[in-house]
Amino acid sequence: MSRADSLTAEEVIGSRGFVDDGYPHDAWRVLREEAPLRYFDLSPRPGFWAVVRRADIVWLSKQPDRFLNAPRVAVFSDSPPPDPDFPNRQIVRHLLNMDPPEHPDYRSLASSWFTPRAIGRRRKEIERISTDLIDELAKKNEADFVADFAAPLTLSVLADMLGVPREDWMRLFEWTNQMAGPGDPEYQIDDDAGTTMRTARDEMFSYFSAMVEARRASPRDDIVSVLASAELKGLPVPAYELLSYFSLLVVAGNETTRNAASGGLLALIENPGELEKLRANPALVPKATEEIIRWTSPVVQFCRTPVEDFEMHGQKIRAGESLCLLYPSANRDAEVFEDPDSFKVDRSPNPHLGFGIGEHFCLGANLARLEIRIALEKLVPRLEEIELAGPFERMKSSFLGGVKRMPIRYRLR
Ligand code: HEM
User: Fold this and answer.
1) Residue 280 C-alpha to ligand 1 middle, in angstroms?
2) Which residues neighbour 84 within 8 Å (Cβ) at sequence distance 6 or greater?
3) Residue whose CA lies nearest to ligand 1 atom number 1
């Protein structure tokens, strides 16, 4: 039996996520080298084909009419088996489980808020929030980087774009943790991932329903007002899709950038030479930002489902089966990245797939990039010393590489 044949599904996507030492990069390397398309059984749940090379993920993602997002968004290794009466039952319905021609119509409803120019107008505000948070950090010499910097930064920027008032930000934070990490015992309701997700979804939906009503009556300059009054082919956006849209923005906008910022700081602590390079040359911030996204790859996977049988790497894949695109694996593909297992703040070129590619390319990429750039611009020059003061605690999830706590000890100017 080859090394690739002996790998189990748990070793490739985690049994309930990757907890102790992060992503299974060794297993993914074996697959890239020996079995670029291997099937993993998950009975009684449907299995999946692991897609691990960058070129294959690009090829699949760029054919959204042949390889669909809708039926299965991701492989949740701990989800209950599908209900035979409702095999496509979805807890939410938003961009990530829509396909053309519906998908671009929905995407365009919010896209003007996320262009480089629209996001650029937020720079001053993001700089102010970052500086305030760093000034608070500077009053102490120990903190939890997640709770005291990464989470409040990403949460406040997005909550503000949506128009959610400050007193409700903590509720958003809790719902996103429950939606993104329903398998993590710390966030679970009744020890059950499904109940956790549904409860968080219901609470978020009723919160945003009330907000939609309020904004329809008296609109403001925020995303909720824009979507609440938007029309598709002359009709208002249906309630379920409208509320799902907000839940997508909240979860996608928070869980990912928070983890990139925290994982990025961890990489700088573990590679002091790289931190020194960045400190000596602030012009490297944009490159360092891309490298942080490549290195941390906060989204582990999304699935595509072929509409008809096809062949790839000599394997026959049937219509309806699941292709699991493993982005962090693509981001360590030695065919594309020189010395892929090294973290280099000046890496160039860096064609990483951290934000995906094609039809579903991350809507929030400009925002995520700007937040990480500003965090680096503001934090690195003031950092005299920094080390981990306790374990980097990861969230239990086979879908997002979340981090719950990151205790640090430091001296800030
Ligand atoms: C470092 C941070 C981030 C990473 C790594 C990331 C990653 C991704 C990836 C890989 C996809 C592609 C999904 C696919 O191909 O099926 C995606 C889609 C998406 N992301 Fe992000 N994301 C980040 C930040 C954000 C932020 C700040 C927002 C803001 C709201 C956001 C909103 C979205 C949305 C709405 C989609 C769906 C786009 C579509 O289906 O058309 N993301 N993201």
Assistant:
1) 32
2) none
3) 257
Q: CB of 345 within 8 A of CB of 278? A: yes
DSSP code per residue over 343-381:
--TT--S----TT--GGG--TTHHHHHHHHHHHHHHHGG
Per CATH, domain 9-412 is 1.10.630.10? yes
Alpha-carbon separation of residue 40 from 7, 21, 59, 104, 320 (angstroms)? 9, 22, 21, 32, 15
The string of pLDDT tens digits covering residues 139-187 is 999 999 999 999 999 999 999 999 999 999 989 989 988 887 777 888 8
The enclosing H or E element of 295 equals helix 285-296
DSSP three-state, residue 221: coil
Beta strands in 92-155 (DSSP E): 142-144
d(CA 269, CA 267): 5
Rounded Cα–Cα distance for residues 267 and 271 (Å): 6
Q: How many residues does the chain have?
A: 413
Q: If you average pLDDT over residues 273-287, what whole number do you get?
A: 98
Residue ranges lining ligand 1, Cβ < 6 Å:
61, 69, 95-96, 107, 248-249, 252-253, 256-257, 260, 293, 298-299, 302, 327, 354-356, 360, 362-364, 367-368
pLDDT at 84 over 80: no
Question: Cα of 107 to ligand 1 centre, how many Å?
Answer: 12
Atom 12 in ligand 1: which residue has the minimum CA distance? 356
Best probe residue, ligand 1, of 105, 256, 362 (max atoms within 8 Å of C-beta): 362
